[in-house]
Amino acid sequence: MLYNSMVKIKEQINLIVDTSEEIRIDKYLANLGKFALYSRSFIDKLIKQGLVLVDNEPVKKSHLVKNRQKVQIKIPFPIEQSIQPENIKLDIVYEDSYLAIINKPAGMVVHPSAGHYKGTLVNALLYNFKYLSSGYESDRPGIVHRLDKETSGLLIVAKDDYTHSLLGKMLQEHLINRYYKALVAGIPEQKQGTIKTNYGRNKYHPNKMCVKHNGKVAITHYKIETYFPYSCLLKINLETGRTHQIRVHLAYIKHPILGEKVYANDNQILEHFPQEMRKKINNILVNYLPYQALHSYKLEFIHPITEKEISVKIELPDNIKKAISILDNLMANA
Question: What CATH number is given for 91-173 in this structure?
Answer without folding.
Answer: 3.30.2350.10
